[in-house]
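User: Just a sanity check before I run the rest of the batch. Below are the structure tokens for the first item. I only need the designed sequence back.
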């Protein structure tokens, strides 16, 4: 039996394959495709203090080699998540990473404190990098001082591991990651989407109501890989890679660059079993070579 387990700080995940926030619902939607509990974990859609309807449509469009989204963090809110979704995930043994979002440090803390009271959460992932909201989001993520402030406050408010999700639009992203590490982050996740646009040429109209949207998918991968490489060389806490991962080879590429684990995002929309397929491929890859998954981490550095 190949050992796929990996350690993310104090946490042991059964394998390094997770799903990315906003690209896998609350996990329960994928029941018809495979047993989600087989994954290393799932990241929830970004949870806010109160439910949010998100932005008006159109809020998604396809582009070559990727997609644009301006969902605007539509979600059921932390309370409904804890009441309606988490008990089912817990019962099924799904590892849950709660992705959280707020426009103030105080609200980040309140959400983390609410989650702290629940069993069955592996970690909180701070979304300080959403490009699709007017308050908070990316404005936190671009600023090392603000990112560190949010991290420090949440760190002090919860015993749960704190992961901080980086924005590729931060100028010196390694400096932001280092500031979060110093503020007590247990892991860095990278990357969130990059802002993009699309225009319908026939109608001479922007394809997204929000004008811009977060660009994700295969075209993001080389950028994400470069950033993960950079961050992994700058911090000593684990880095969890996200960005255009749709095959096992993509996942391995990120691990060789220094990622401890990976998250599958946009690929789920084209293939709802993408994460399971990537996990099975990783198991075969390790079995054939007689190595553990953790042996891949940073092996190309
Ligand atoms: C439709 C959609 C919704 C997303 N919602 C969130 C979110 O709520 N919180 C978050 O941190 N990231 C969110 N993301 C970003 C993804 O988790 C991921 O970081 C990004 O899409 C890059 O990975 P990918 O190319 O594999 O999709 C969302 C992405 C998409 C496409």
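Assistant: Here's the designed sequence for the first item:
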């Amino acid at each position: 039996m190949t050992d796929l387990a990996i350690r993310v700080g104090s946490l042991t995940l059964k394998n390094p394959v997770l799903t990315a926030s906003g690209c896998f619902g609350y996990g329960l939607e994928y029941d018809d495709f495979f047993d989600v509990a087989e994954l290393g974990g799932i990241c929830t859609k970004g949870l806010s203090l109160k439910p949010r309807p998100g932005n008006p449509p159109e809020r998604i469009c396809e582009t070559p080699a990727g997609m644009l989204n301006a969902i605007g963090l539509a979600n059921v809110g932390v309370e409904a998540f804890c009441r309606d979704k988490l008990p089912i995930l817990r019962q099924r043994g799904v590892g849950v990473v709660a992705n959280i979002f707020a426009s103030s440090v105080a609200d980040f803390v309140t959400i983390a404190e609410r989650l702290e009271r629940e069993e069955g959460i592996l970690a909180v992932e701070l979304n300080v990098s959403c490009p699709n909201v007017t308050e908070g989001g990316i404005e936190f993520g671009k600023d090392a001082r603000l990112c560190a402030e949010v991290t420090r406050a949440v760190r002090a408010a919860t015993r749960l591991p704190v992961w901080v999700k980086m924005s590729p639009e931060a100028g010196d992203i390694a400096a932001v990651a280092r500031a979060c590490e110093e503020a007590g982050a247990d892991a860095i996740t990278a990357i969130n989407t990059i802002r993009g646009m699309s225009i319908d040429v026939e109608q001479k109209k922007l394809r997204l109501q929000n004008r811009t949207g977060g660009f994700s998918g295969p075209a993001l991968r080389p950028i994400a890989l470069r950033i993960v490489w950079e961050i992994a060389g700058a911090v000593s806490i684990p880095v969890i890679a996200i960005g255009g991962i749709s095959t096992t080879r993509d996942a391995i590429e990120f691990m060789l660059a220094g990622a401890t684990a990976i998250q599958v995002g946009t690929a789920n929309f084209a293939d709802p079993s993408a994460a399971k397929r990537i996990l099975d491929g990783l198991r075969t890859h390790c079995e054939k070579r007689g190595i553990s998954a953790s042996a891949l981490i940073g092996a190309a550095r």
